[in-house]
## 1
Amino acid sequence: MTSLPVHEVADPAAFHRKLSRWNNRRLAPGVPHAGWIADAREDAEMILLEGGFVERMRADAAPYLRDLPEDVEGFIAWFEALKGSGPGENDPLFPWLAEQATLDEMRWFLLQEVAGEAGFEDLVAYAQVKMPTRPKLELARNYWDEMGRGNEGGMHGPMLEKLALALDLHPTIEGTVWPSLALGNTLVAFSTTRRYAYHALGALGAVELTAPWRAAHVAAGLKRLGVGAERKYFALHATLDVEHSRTWNEEVLRPLAAQRPEVIRSLAEGAVMRLRAGERCFAAYREHLWEPEQVLQSA
């Protein structure tokens, strides 16, 4: 299944730009100001629009969940099988990036990725609120790794910023394809809206599960193109996320599924929705970067 879901908006690009600008405003640290009432009114409107968007994505994910197991072992096996076989997995874009993309093509791809980056450490921090002890501790360990274990040089976010600086990337909302904005908007909605808290854990777990293959190909492409130490962000995630995925599945997903089997579907929906969002990104990237005949061959 590769078709885009039907939006209740005439222009999905305009919708996701608006949602991205709202997320940037509402998540930014601020101080009391005279316009807070106008901001609160905008928040009320946007929360409804965001909720409608997420519910449409839930409906889009439903066909992937028809055979979702309801027991713990079955669910964990189902989740782990998403690696390599879930939506967007093994996309031909990534071997192409590793082996054929020019520096300008790689820069455009990375520009989209940087623009759509929602900040994994912040998403984890939001998602762990009021979670049970065992998952909360694993989320804390994951957060600490993202934060370089207290060492600024090891922080993952600044690593990506250094790569963007080295390649002279200047991401803007207007210059980003809407599926990339939608991916970031989906993850922010999950982590900041408590009714989607378990969706957030499923989605972030899917990132850890599936990122290494893609990161390894991007790192290989950057090395081929002569990018030096700045490619560390992708080289690190090609290896570190393998262990992150193992502990996420064992310490977050398994105990939640055992203690609260009613959240299994939310965990699974979040994972599928994140992978579907990535699948749409990869299709949009190929459409921009490849010749029409290449796009047809990959369909």
Note: The mean pLDDT is 94.
## 2
Amino acid sequence: MITLLSAPSNLGLRPPEPGSVPGSAKAPEAFREAGLFRRFTDRGASDGGIVLAGRYVDDDATRPAGRVRNEAAFVDHSLRLAARIGEVLDEGRAPLVIGGDCGILVGAGIAVKRRGGAGLVHIDGHTDFRHPGNSDECASVAGEALAAAVGEHWPAIADIDGLAPYFSATRTAHIGHRDDDEEQAEVRGLLARVTPAADVLARGADAVAAETAASAGGRYWLQLDVDVLDPSVMPAVDSPDPGGLGAAELTALLRALAPQAIGASITVFDPDLDPDGRYARLLAEVLGDGLRELGSEARD
């Protein structure tokens, strides 16, 4: 069965403008209002509560070189989130973590690695593979989360408690980037499988899901950044790029991948960009349908 966890962190994002605060921390409650939690609890899921993040600070003017935004608060939240995810896994349930920004993948990775490890299926409109080895602009874990998850980042982020890598690159598969993604060549050289959004649209979700699940080892954490959707469908994200999936394609992809996932995390929806709630309601439908069998076939 599924346990819902709210992780309203925006610590891994850059401020929309100097001195402002990203809106992704509001996502869990926006999803609750849109009926997502009720969709799952009506089918027997439990509500595991919330793991609050520390205060977001625009520290661009004071942050030393070699550190990410809100680093101390980010690490603290990752460890507390990992502990809660771990409790759910130890109960034999599938955590469904509602974020928040993509940095919550680090907390999930810590929890999974502490329990022997698993594969990773990373669905995102970007590869999120900026890291100190390929960029001088590292600062926002939300754009660097996949790199951190497979050990390609500063140790303070990628090696918390000496657990690097949280996921082995040889059991990590990515789906959903656009054809102009700057890090796609590097990612193709490291990960088990890399599939752009265009291939999902051309070949179909079921074929891509089957190949992806096999590459991740048949037992994996499922990370979804909703900016994998095309902006015509989902503009309420911080970095919308054309060429993404439609709602039907994403639903089919999740339906095929969810049963073998030991847990999942949902990230980067920004309610500040959805004033009437229409996009939250759309995502409630996609996620409620696509993830309803989360963990049903996952085995140790």
Note: Strands lie at 2-7, 46-50, 94-99, 119-123, 172-175, 193-195, 220-225, 261-267.
